[in-house]
Amino acid sequence: MIACIVIPGFELRAALRLRPALALEPAALAPEEGTEPRLGPVTAAAEAAGVRPAMRLGEALALCPSLVLVDPDPSTAEREWEGVLRRLEDVGVAVSGAEPGVVYFETRGVERLYGGVEAALKKAVGAVGSSWDARAGAAGRRFAALAAANVARPGQILVVSDEHARNFLAPLPLDLLPLDESRQQELRELGVRKLGELAGLPGGAVAERLGPDGRRAWSLARGGDRRRIRGRRPPAELVESLEFPEAVANELTLRRAFTVLLDRLLERPDRDNRFVRKAAVAARLVGGGSWRRTVTLRNPTAERDRLRAAVGPKLMELPAPVIELRLELVELSDSRGQQLELVRTARAETGVRLQEGLRQVRASTGSGSVCTVVEVAPWSRIPEARALFVPRDD
Amino acid sequence: MVADSGSSRALRTSRRLNEPRPALVVATGAGVPRFVNRQSVALLREEWRVVDRWWTEEPIARRYFDLVLDSGQNVVVFRDEERSCWFTQRA
Fold first, then answer.
1. Along the 91 residues of chain B, how does pLDDT read in single tens digits?
2. Do A285 and A244 touch, CB atoms closer than 8 A?
3. I need a labelling partner for A360 at 20 to 30 A (CA). Which of A35, A94, A274, B91 fits?
4. Is A326 on the interface with B (CB under 8 A)?
5. According to the model, what pLDDT value does residue B68 have?
6. Can you give the pLDDT at residue B12?
7. Are A264 and A141 contained in the same domain?
8. Has residue A226 been placed in a domain?
9. Per the structure, how many domains does chain A have?
């Protein structure tokens, strides 16, 4: 069977980890900068005041003037989500994280280990942690499992057998389908309000009226396809970060800090000469929020300049001054092969000798004794703001 | 994205280069240094002001003096007008 675990409003819950008191007040995830001013997930108190997810900001504030807008914290959300996935992997399931807050896995591998589907799901929900209010569903098909998890109460496990799947889906609302609001509205205006009503229509007519999205929704309403779930490849754990003595917004400074982090990561022995397939740059912002961008490289590489060219430009998208910059090598290749130079240049030889000298200094004086001077704002009128002393342990 | 695994995620903090160091300065009534760390001043080469970050909670207001001491040593001192104390620093 395919199992699905859902954590409703995951991004909001993750953003509230640092301010748990807000979870009991009317609060909602603020819209991201540059997007349509619509709310993200909302707390139960906000829902009680009439505020709904995806509601327009102005409308929500008019309904509930005490509504607290919580800034999105994508870095924390991603870290917490990775923690959830790893805890699930620790209990033996091969997870496929569709999006933060929704995860699928095949129960076949763990059913015998835990004594049945329900016991395996109970174990998985326990592994997620009680603070997330996770719900679990299982069915023969992916969409039916998702629907079951969405219908379940916090901590509840709902297993839908194949023969009951159509009947189970029939009374559920159209919101569960991946259809945009205008399409759903169109269906409602046609008198179609439940999945069963959509599933009962002829597929060709639905495709003609609503296009490929409608056809896919129709197929899902009938249970969806039987695609297998493929477990993800666990990501690598190579992270370097740099804290600034004061908030930095200058692009040149950030680029230099980024280069220092990249150099550190590429020198890490635990990279084991593997190439970088996917990297992420994240930052803790001065206002308390966070920011994160990931880059997947067309060809895995360990070349500093190529990585700089691929990931560096993302720093331009930073929305606010930064107090901590992090660089993560999220995914590394399996291959380690590298074509060596036939003749080593004199400069490379000097570099090797210098590295050896530094290694000996470090061995005799301890970690943190070798530092690099990084110019961060050479034009500054304040002398101590022009350069930083950055420890190098590579 | 990545769980805290302890040793593999070392957080190393950078520090500033050329931080100001406290100095013992005796100044004239006009605020010009006469003695720096108990050495008398032979020549005032240059004087300038730095006023910055007045919009933050840590504003900077400094009066810098580039001096030559009796011993021939070149030294730059400044008076921090926010904290009313003297520092030396390479300019």
1. 333 333 333 345 778 889 999 999 999 989 999 999 999 999 999 999 999 988 888 899 999 999 999 999 999 999 999 989 999 998 7
2. no
3. A274
4. no
5. 95
6. 56
7. no
8. no
9. 3
pLDDT at A338: 62
Q: Which domain holds residue A200?
A: 170-221
A113, A207: one domain: no
B60/chain A closest Cα distance in angstroms? 9
| Residue A287 identity | G
For strand A238-248 and strand B11-13, is the pairing parallel, antiparallel, or unpaired? Answer: parallel
In a domain, A277, yes or no: yes
Residue A377 has pLDDT above 90, yes or no: no
The DSSP symbol for A377 reads: -
Nearest to A263, CA basis, from A327, A196, A348, A344 = A327
In a mutational test of the A interface, the residue from B14, B60, B87 whose CB has the highest number of chain A CBs within 10 Å is B14
**Chain B contact present for A97, CB below 8 A:** no
Measured distance CA(B27)–CA(B40) in Å, rounded: 10
Please check whether residues A61 and A101 belong to one and the same domain.
yes
Give B-chain residues touching A282 at CB under 8 angstroms.
1
Alpha carbon distance, N-terminus to C-terminus of chain A: 48
Say if A373 is an interface residue toward chain B (CB within 8 Å): yes
